Amino acid sequence: MSNTVHDVVIIGAGHNGLTCAAYLGMAGLKVKVLERRPVVGGAAVTEEFFPGFRNSVAAYTVSLLNPKIIRDLRLHDHGLRIVERRAQNFLPTPEGRYLLIADGKTEAEIAKFSRRDAERYAAFNAELDAGADVLRDLALRAPPNLVSGFNLRSLSEMLKLGALAKSLRRLPDERLRTLFDLFTKSAGDFLDRWFESDLVKALFGFDAVVGNLASPYTPGTAYVLLHHAFGEVNGKRRTWGHAIGGMGAITQAMAKAAAESGVDIETGAAVREVMIERGRAGGVVLTDGTVVRGRAVAANVNPKLLYTSMVPEGAIEPPLLDRMRHWRCGSGTFRMNVALSELPSFAALPGRAPADHHTAGIIMAPSLAYMDRAYDDAKRDGWSREPIIEMLIPSTLDDSLSAPGAHVASLFCQHVMPELPDGASWRDHREAVADLMIDTVEQYAPGFKASILGRQALSPLDLEETFGLTGGDIFHGALSLDQLFWARPMIGYADYRSPVKGLYHCGSGAHPGGGVTGAPGHNAAHAIVRDLRRRRWRA
Ligand SMILES: Cc1cc2nc3c(=O)[nH]c(=O)nc-3n(C[C@H](O)[C@H](O)[C@H](O)COP(=O)(O)OP(=O)(O)OC[C@H]3O[C@@H](n4cnc5c(N)ncnc54)[C@H](O)[C@@H]3O)c2cc1C
What we know:
single chain, 539 residues, seven-stranded mixed β-sheet
């Protein structure tokens, strides 16, 4: 056992753990990060998945990473370079039509399907942007806690609530109504009000179900659409881009920022238990029995994992523990990485020579009804017969991932159930479902299958076992109204503090939730610095 007592011990070196560590280090605190995997980055990593082919093997595209965090951590100085796609999205249909979303072309493209939709597109974007602005403003702030009683704590929370109400009061009434719609309605209901074309609705509907095990007609899915709209690339709002070197380039830059501020990061160090001493978190115990002491502990892991397997039973009240046991996890995600000998040629837009649409998020799910069926299938059979797939080919923007002429593609596939019906195991069905995903792409891009040199398939079980994502949940808990804002991860503890003194939440299970944002890590660091300074002052 080491006698060193760190100021803060962080469980997990995902991008939020690293962000939190870097801010704490910059505040002069002595920080130790413990990561179970041999590499840092969590779900934001670049790995060789087939000899000679590297890819962002889990998270695959960047937009939500907060610009303040990029600046504060000087991520560009630490090697991060993010580039825009030449076209944002490409939606082909198997019947040979397509919609291309690209600067200067979008309205004309939409008009191919509906002149009315093309005319309404700008107004729809303005509406979504107004909602995204509110979310952007909330992302780097702790939500007010809903607490009972009339005391100093409840008064301070009421002040925060007042400040929130004041900022919302600036919005005109109709914008407030839309905001309420976006937080509560289904994406399908929201989009049906605006558009008539299936492909235009599918463009936005995809963002509502991505990582979200739901039909686009499930209430609350409009929020997930909004959640995917609050990002930017190099100052250009609601744009998605690519980090040169893959998503691992983001977390490598974060690790450098943390190391520069004195943070000690240890990989291959799996935490077994949070130590509670006299009612406070006093460090952690690793699976090999090593004790690592800290005046505070911050958990980058899914809160369900934290409370059901790391915090000793009895440390939190039984009703809270019961809630954490029922924290809803499971994204419906099946993730593939494929090594390609050549670019795909789409029936709707033939040609293997690199073109703008090859750099886009290629959405293969031509209508909301298709997505609705995909969800129903998955619930009944364990996976969709006709899955929803987004393909991204980052090697069209980045020559560091594969040999010249060859390519790598990410397939983000839905819906699949975290647990299969009748006790079936993903170990027995992974490869058949991977074949189904490839066959689905083949329908849009004949010859795709023959161009595959190698593949990696990650079922929900693999996402859990490899990345520690409980239930394969890419967001550390569903982004549903009951698990958002002041209820993330539980009412009374939405400000990164927890029911155990000295234990903090710094991962995506805290506000504002999942995605490569860095926001939970940033916000948690502020709460920890404040509390430790107060303790030092009192001592
Ligand atoms: C397949 C997939 C695709 C995605 N696509 C995108 C995308 O394109 N864009 C986007 O913005 N977001 C995407 N996301 C979501 C996003 O990647 C995650 O929400 C985010 O990376 C989570 O970051 P985090 O730091 O909160 O947690 P994580 O990245 O999950 O980090 C938690 C860390 O804790 C470690 N850990 C677990 N258990 C222990 C233990 N016992 N001891 C020590 N360490 C432990 C884990 O190994 C991990 O490194 C995707 C996620 C997945 C899985």
